[in-house]
Every structure is written in structure tokens, then in C-alpha cells.
Amino acid sequence: MVKKSDFVLAPYMKSNDWLAAWQITNTLVPYFILWWLMPYAAAISLWLLLPIVVLMVLFSLRSFSLMHDCGHYSLFTSKRVNRFMGFVLGVINAMPQYAWSRDHAYHHKTNGDWERYRGIGDFLSVTEFTQLSPTDQKLYGLLRQPLMTLPGGFFYLAIKPRIALILGAFDFLMHGIRCWRSDEPMTLADIVNAHHSKHWQTRGEFWDLLFNNICVVTSWVLLSQLIGVKLFFGVYSMVLTFAGAIFICVFFVQHNFEGAYAHETNGWDFVQGAIAGSSYLDMPAWLRWFTADISYHNIHHLSERIPNYNLAACHHQNRHLLTQVRVVRLDEIAHCAQYILWDDNTNNLVPVPKTPLLSTMP
Fold first, then answer.
1. How many domains does the chain have?
2. Residue 184: its pLDDT value, please?
3. Which of 111, 152, 150, 142 is nearest to 337 (CA)?
4. Is residue 161 part of a domain?
């Protein structure tokens, strides 16, 4: 069995600040220019908005991909610069980068271990699925169909982080009231230290969530005043909807496909999780650029410290060890969308049965 030490990875783990800065520039400058052009295009013809929206979706996708690299501290050499630029890129897509990166790091540590990590759709095992009622089984399959990525993508980017802050703040307020009513005297610092929120895990995540929301909502107000409420929110909602849907689909097909490595924790292997639990997504060159070469997903999982601009070269250097990697084409997304259940008896991903499975619950 191939081992991680068999791969040549170390030479490609070196970050290049000049190249990273150029990637940030050729992503953010066009993105902001498109926002500047938008009201002028709309004044001429609403049809001119179509190419602008398409390009904004693609640059939003690239911004998310570069934010992803910053979360792995691989884009720049400095951890502080990665944190700052990750925050900025997170604002572009309304996503608090710090907590997202923590969740994503867990995915990297457990990829292919389907007992510990169930993917982007909180997928169930066959055993868990059989314990659902027939109605819930149908609902499970319906909510994980490709078309659901459209409302799901918008919710994931635009709504979920706002709800997290609101619910977290309300939870902290209730915690403070309970502490104030208790017989034990507590200082403000004691109250803060005693609070554990399910909406953030550390103070750093809270501050990142708070400042992201401040920046995002402020940008909504300013841009809606500058270019008009209807035009701004109409275009912005379309961009986030389609960009979010593409994020989800790309992530999905790189881990959910026929024959994917989907093991239980006992006997799980990290390298097999990277090689056989991730696909190579066959994209045209222009789309690889907009996704920052995330299609080389096996190499990325072998070492998340390899920046995107080194992934292709590392892949070609090690291609003789990647002959068994599953290649997924874009037209196979619908086929891959079937594999939304983990068979915990055979360690395979399987489709939802066409007829409801009877509950095994007593």
C-alpha cells in the first residue's frame, strides 16, 4: 500500500508571497470593477447585467478558493497575513473565515472516515436511515438533490452566519441573566468565561463572526444606497446563490462518488482517505483558474500546506502514484448526487433506495 512518504510533497509546500499577492490582485480588482460597472450596464440594458453576474459568480468562486488557502495558512508565508486576507476574502462571500477554516481542518483530519465526518450534507448511514419514518426518508433524499444547492447555497452564505450571531448573542444574554439571578456573585469576566456557545468555539471565532457581520451588513447598506436597493440585492442574491451552489457541488463531487473510500474509524487510513476518498475533478483550464486548482484534490488532502499555485506541479510530479484516483467529469455531477448514504456494513457510499426502508426501531 502506498505511503505518504512515497510522495514528493515538501518542495511544493513553500509559499510565495509575490505570487499570492498577484492572485489576490487579479481576483479582487476585477471583482470590484464589476461592481462599479454594474449600474452603468443596468442603465443601458438589463441584458448587459447577465455577463456581469456570470463573471461576478466566477470571481466570487475564486475568492472563496483563495480564502480556503488562507485558512490552511498556505497562500502567504505569514500566518498573520493569511488571517487578514482570509477575513477580507470571507467578507466578499459573507462567510466568517476563521470558524469555517476550523471546521474544514477537521474535514482534512478525518477525510474518508465516515464515522467521524459525514460530509457537507450531514449524510446518514444506512442504519440511521432505516430508523427514519418513510416520510423522513423521502425528505432526506429530496433535500440532498442537486437543485437544492441553489437555496442551500444562498442560506449557507447569506443567512446562516447572521443567524449564528443573533442566536449566539441571545444565548449569551440568557446566560448573563441566569448568572445575575444566581446567589453566587459573579463579575462580568466570570460571566464571559463561564459561557460556552454552540455557535462559536473560541473567543477568536466570536470576534471573527462579529466583525464579519459588521463588515458584510455595512457593505449591504452602503452599496444599496450607492446603486439602488433593488439592483444591489437582486444582483447580490443571484451571485451568492449561484456561487454557493457551485461551492457545494464542487465539494460534494470531490468526496461523494461511486467507489469512494468511505471507511469506519477502525482501520481507517489517512492516505487512502486522500487518494481514494477524494476525486480529481476534470475541468477546463479557465474553470481550474477560477477554482484555484482545487480539482487536484488528492494532493491537497495529502498536504493542505501546499498552496494552490503549486498543486498542479505536485500532481504531475506524483502522477505515477495517483493512477487509481477517480476522475470525475462535470457531466457526472448528477450521477454522483445519488451517493448520499454511507453503508456502514460494507464501507461504501450508496444511493437512497427507491422504496422506503422499514424502520428497525422496536
1. 1
2. 74
3. 142
4. no
